U-box domain-containing protein (Dendrobium catenatum), 417 residues
Amino acid sequence: MRGEVRARRLRDTPAPPLDLVGVQIPYHFRCPISLELMRDPVTVSTGQTYDRPSIESWFAMGNTTCPVTRCPLPDFTVIPNHTLRRLIQEWCVAHRSDGVERIPTPKQPADPTLVRLLLAQASAGDASLSSRIAALRRLRALACESEKNRAVVSTYTRSAIAEMAFGADLDLAVGAMEALAAVGVTERESAMVAARPERVAMLAGMIRLESSAEARIGAAALVEGMRTAEAREAVGAADGVIEGLVALVENGDSRAVRAGMRGLFSLCLAKENRGRAVMAGAAEAVVRRIGEMYCVERGDLERALATVELLCRVEGGREAVVGVEGAVADLVRAMTGKATERAAEHAAGALVAVVGGSEALQEEAVAAGVVTQLLLMVQSGCSDRARRKAQMLLKILRPAWPMQDLFANSDDFLHPF
């Protein structure tokens, strides 16, 4: 219903004149959805043309009709309107003196036909090994070019490439795993591995493989995709899996570090793996990298801190974290600035375990400014769980607060509501 209302508005409401730096944009150069100058015009099966981001967003919202005509669309195929794009570019050039910038020629997504041909070449058992590996490398290159390409390649090839990654030929398996690192994996592909012990063993070998960092990243992505406790426990118990992920975190580049951390977080969600992770040096490896996590996707920092908190709860975990120089300061820093609520919560939870029972570490945390951050957490609209952790840490730190008399009436902060 909402889509129909939107379509009716597009069809029946006259579009207001739009100006670009004082120049009126021709009506047929404007997208019927956004009413802005089209930069990548594409045509749907009804013959109507839209700007690619606008029509893709329309489809992503679940709409199955043409926004202008309201006619049902038999498929969601869009065809680049090169003629209109060139006319728009010529118009931009003609009005350059008025400050109009020429729109760049957009890079088109990978052709599904080409993707299917490459997959057929990679899967052909009677083809030469070199040609099969070359096809996998071409698929990987396409997926790395853009997010649109990755989506196209992933749609047609992901499951088949995952199968090839566990074939008998090691070189082909490595090539497939490298492609999988670029294409991405889902829970389904990860479940295919966890359900078969021989594949879990191959996965462990791939994670330890020194010759290909990309193959190791692909293997770590499969580990991250484990979603059930049984799968996580089975993979975590395999000889070399956790050690390989720790090695990625310790010695890899930024992509490898993130892949290794995500894999460790997934495995540590299963209690049975936490002791193994501590024994493998996961706590120290993750803590040493926390300082680098502020410049990457915020979810990676949250996962890293959650992993530290989980490992601090098992024997040897706290001692491993304490043994890392600057660990307390890094955990406090994770609560400050633009830290997300979850990052602050996990940092507070880890600090509860780390500084408890050590006056020196409590003083170090206070000196790093943790009290201010905790008081802000308690007074903010954070979750009940985050607030309880903050209150617990405040209680532990209270003897170490300088000028304690300023907080003589702070019981409201220290007791759960």
In short: Residues 112-331 form a domain with the Leucine-rich Repeat Variant fold (CATH 1.25.10.10). The CA atoms of residues 328 and 365 lie 6 Å apart. DSSP finds 23 helices and five strands in the chain.
